[in-house]
Amino acid sequence: MKLKSNKSPRERRSFNKSSSVKGQYFVDSLSAINEYLRFRPEVIIGIFASAKDLDGLRDEVLKQGLSSDIVRPLEGSQYSSTGAVVKLKEKKWDHFIRELDRPTNNLVVMLDHITDPRNLGAIARSCAFFGVQSIIVASNRQVLFSQASVATAMGGFALVDLVVVSSLASALGSMKDSDYQIWGADQNGEPISGQLSSDQRKVLVLGSEQSGLSKSVQGICDHFVKISGSDSSLESLNVSVAAGILLHSFAE
Predict the structure, then answer these.
(1) 45-96 pLDDT tens trace
(2) What CATH architecture does domain 91-251 belong to?
């Protein structure tokens, strides 16, 4: 029996135009599709599948209570590989703050004006891998959801919320009042090894690609940490690479 589509007429009409519809993005690969199906099926607008993937994906969407109509043949579409069109929206601070006491928010990442969408996407994927469910960003001078950031994250945003605030400093102040320790990544910080307490709630703040942490954010941090390289190494790592290394230490 074919299930009735649970998408509105407007959503169905815009299904084939994800690249031009605000808030809709295309993620390719079966692994990314499966992550959205497992963790956030409600954001899937549609799936384009090659002939060999069609039947399997229709079975999977039915398991999630979605209509098999959302799976369309890749042939004749604007896309060149199997993928999903997803609809994503940034989370508001007021919504996030109401959930602050959940155990899943014991480790939160904040980005201090990251402008490269691929860095945002790569950080989101690392957060998803290490169980971080929220990334806090500023509303200005900061890349948000875009085709590049969502594509780079693959299925990362199926597990990670992007929380937008007007002031990073004010958000950090609120979190500090809620007994979070604020850890800033900085070249002049201390090596991270041996500094972390497993039972302390933490915010890890990563600075911009060009200038690092802003002064207003630095003034709120409780600790500064760095990743030590060899004596003859480069001065710094790409911010998304540094995020993955630091999250590994923070999540242990």
Answers:
(1) 999 999 999 999 999 999 999 999 999 998 888 988 999 999 999 999 999 9
(2) 3-Layer(aba) Sandwich (3.40)
The structural domains of the chain, with segments of one domain joined by +, span 9-87, 91-251
Examine the pLDDT at 20 and tell me if it is beyond 80: no
Predicted structure pTM score: 0.87
* 30-to-69, 148, 155, 206 alpha-carbon distances in Å: 18, 18, 10, 31
Q: How crowded is residue 89: how many other Cβ atoms within 10 Å of its Cβ?
A: 13
Reply yes or no on domain 9-87 having CATH 3.30.1660.
no
Is residue 144 within 8 Å of residue 164, measured between CB atoms? yes
Flag whether pLDDT at 33 surpasses 90: yes
